[in-house]
UniProtKB/TrEMBL annotation:
This is SRPBCC family protein. Residues 137-171 are annotated as: Disordered. It holds the Pfam family Polyketide_cyc2. Residues 161-171 have a biased composition (Polar residues). InterPro entries: Polyketide_cyclase/dehydratase, START-like_dom_sf. It comes from the Bacteria. It comes from Belnapia arida. SUPFAM superfamilies: Bet v1-like (SSF55961).
Amino acid sequence: MGEFTGRIRIDRPAAEVFAFLSDPTAMPRYLETVQRVEQQGPGRIAMEGESHGHAYRDEGWIQVEAEARRMRWGSDSLKDYGGEMVVTEAEGGAEVSIRLSIVPEPKVAERMERESGAVDHAMRIAMERTLGAIKAACEGGGDPAPDGSRGGDNLPDSRPFGSSATLNPDI
């Protein structure tokens, strides 16, 4: 199983950052392929989106530990997938740390190697984009658009922020 980690500093109070990130319906604002998330009961979510021209729907679990400012998640259909996000206090703001465990399906791994040279490199790019999108969403202000889309409050494109993320150099 591949383990990928990253972190980024956010110029907002840690409590605000965690409140935003621990709301599953906000995920479309910072996860590039996610278009819609709905809660299906305590600790259960369903996600819909599109990735590389293919629509998907997945269900999974989510565990929010508000006191520790930690969130864990996993997928019902992808047994080798799970993650953890922790928000901590940082001078003048917050730091978001993400750990992702995933083994891409063979077709996906093949595409990642073709497009990025290696699965690890593709995952690093994806982690940088996600962290940058989190930073943009948290620092951009405003609430998500009523339809859950990213474009509701003119947030900047997350891709330029990729270089500001501090990633584990071992990946």
